[in-house]
Amino acid sequence: MPEALAGGFLGLAIMLLGEGFMLAKINPVYEWFTPVQWTGYLLLLDALLIKWRGESFIFAHTREFCALAFFSVVYWFMFEGYNLHLRNWAYVNLPQNFALRMIGFVWAFATVYPGILMTNEVLQALGLFKNVSFKARLKKPLAFPPWLLNTFVAFGFLISAFIRPFMTISDFTV
Questions:
Q1: What region, left, alpha or beta, does residue 87 occupy, with left being phi > 0 and alpha being psi -120 to 50 degrees?
Q2: How far apart are the first and last CA of the chain?
Q3: What is the pLDDT of residues 65-80, one digit of tens each?
Q4: pTM summary value
């Protein structure tokens, strides 16, 4: 348990120092603010999970954590591909060196989905939203055969991967 507290304090320190370094424009935090902050946040969340559930998500479920980080990178790069066409957001204060910029992108993107999942786990550990139900009011749940579900997944992936060349900019996407 003391290790959990140390990890939590380390995460909190990273976040607080990161804020100060960002405001003072001190590198490398100034250029890599997002991955630094997300990393601190993940360490803090993991410490809370150890304290409240008795188990680290990062270290007790390392394979799942790494898979989640990998898919987080894959999907965020897909969104970046869409943004090349849509131009809905831009990044500032990035390293000029392309390799360092890519390291920062991969690091930042790898933290997003784990951060979302671990935030959910912490909220569940606190018992928040336990009475909220999203269940449909159907008497019998819908059931689809596995082949149809697999078809939906494959179709969704193909549409996601190949839709970019056919996208058009409209008044609603600018």
A1: left
A2: 49
A3: 999 999 999 999 988 8
A4: 0.75
